[in-house]
Write a structure and sequence with these properties.
Blueprint (H helix, E strand, L loop, with lengths): L2 H35 L13 E6 L4 H12 L8 E6 L7 H7 L3 E4 L7 H8 L7 E6 L2 E3 L3 H6 L7 E11 L6 H23 L9 E5 L13 H11 L3 E13 L4 H21 L6 H4 L1 H31 L5 H25 L5 H24 L23
Parallel strand pairs: 1-2, 1-4, 2-3, 6-8
Antiparallel strand pairs: 4-7, 5-8, 6-7
Length: about 400
């Protein structure tokens, strides 16, 4: 086997492991651990710790009234659930809406310093056992709070991640189909990671932590939810997964808006690993390092470059190779042609999931590369603009 062939299979192996292998491996390991662990301790539902629901809203006038109504309707004792809405920097009607309901503790300052700064400021007003973070443009199922706090009966659990669900309405566009499929896959991985012991991080749309474990986050942090939850895991606590608690969010309005969102997230992942390099030390963090590298690091920093390198390496192998390398090269060509067709179809508002999932995977990798280099050039601001979303779901869509 030549050096070129070895390089090809290393690249192919990394790509397959990143997108398929790790998911399959974590399911197998989780099943094996569950088989030998035997009967688990029963978690009772009669424990009701004090809880703060913290909602950070920047110019969410279109969503905030419905979010507040949804928050008030949650199934949890009113005297044990405090709701804080912080609208720092908003210059639309968000602050006015947040003041209407007497149950809402509203915080507002005119200056806009970003979501992370707003959360740091709001946490000074949290005096409950548990704090739940939720985005203003998501609706929670009625049992969400109870489902999240259940897991805190285990003192080893420091953070609990809810599930993100993507509401697509009557649309079946590229962003909707791709994002929905992506998050179903992510939820499956989180479920089995939790069975191994801990998830790598929490879904920013809905997660809870022990309030006393919160550490102030640098204000220039791009993905504060990732940092907050991962710091807790680095501290030796587990991140559990609560599929019974979910946040319903509409998909990005189109693939361009989803591309912008993914760029910011990619930059945030690079920022996080540069600030928490200990994550890559398996001698200190063991399983957490293995999970982080497999689930996040390879996908964000390695696989996109492998996908680019695979094409020329495969091309150089064609003149002297057999049918296998020709077939693999053709599969790559077909994949990117299908993704291109998906892009053209979504611009014409034509729907086909067959085309849109390859497009979403391609967009995800291109945005990872873009975010990587944009952050290195210092071009990613913490004062990012939120992506435009589809029409919001009605309350009856959240069950």
């Amino acid at each position: 086997m030549t050096i070129l062939e070895i390089s090809f299979w290393i690249l192919m192996g990394i790509i397959l492991y990143t997108y398929l292998g790790y998911g399959a491996l974590v399911v197998i390991l989780g099943w094996v651990k569950g088989f030998f662990r035997g009967k688990q301790r029963v978690i009772h539902r009669n424990d009701e710790p004090s809880v703060t629901l913290l909602v950070s809203a920047f110019n969410e006038e279109a969503w905030l009234k419905k979010k507040i109504e949804n928050s008030i309707s949650l199934d949890y004792p009113e005297d044990k659930l405090k709701i804080i809405v912080i609208t720092d920097g908003s210059n639309d009607g968000s602050a006015k809406i947040a003041k209407i309901n007497p149950r809402i503790i509203h915080l507002h300052e005119v200056q806009r310093r970003g979501k992370t700064a707003a959360i740091n400021r709001a946490m000074k007003f949290v005096d409950t056992d548990i704090v739940i973070f939720s985005d203003a443009n998501t609706l929670l199922n009625r049992e969400a709070v109870r489902e999240l706090v259940l897991f805190f009966r285990d003192p080893a659990v420091g953070c609990v991640s809810g599930e993100k669900r993507v509401y697509m309405g009557n649309r079946n566009g590229a962003a909707s189909a791709g994002e929905g499929t992506y998050w179903r896959f992510e939820s499956l991985i989180k479920k089995w990671e939790a069975r191994l012991g801990s998830c790598v991080s929490a879904a920013g749309e809905l997660f809870a932590i022990r309030s006393d474990l919160f550490m102030k986050v640098p204000e220039d942090t791009l993905i504060e939810d990732f940092v907050i939850s991962l710091r807790i895991a680095l501290g030796g606590y587990r991140i559990q997964y609560a599929p019974g608690a979910y946040a319903m969010e509409t998909s990005s309005s189109d693939i361009g808006e989803e591309f912008k969102r993914k760029i910011r997230i990619a930059g945030g992942h690079l920022q996080s690993i540069l600030r928490m390099p200990g994550l890559l030390n398996p001698f200190r963090h063991g399983m957490l390092t293995f999970q982080y590298v497999s689930h996040k690091f390879l996908r964000s920093f390695i696989a996109p470059f492998c996908l680019i390198a695979l094409i020329p390496v495969n091309l150089f192998l064609l003149p002297k190779s057999g049918v296998l390398y020709v077939a693999l090269f053709m599969l790559q060509v077909i994949f990117y042609l299908v993704a291109t067709a998906g892009y053209l179809l979504q611009k014409r508002h034509l729907a086909s999931r067959l085309f849109f999932v390859p497009l979403y995977i391609t967009i995800m990798n291109v945005s990872a590369l873009t975010g990587f280099f944009r952050y290195l050039r210092g071009q990613q601001s913490v004062l990012w603009e939120k992506s435009a979303r589809m029409v919001e779901p009605e309350p009856e869509d959240v069950r």
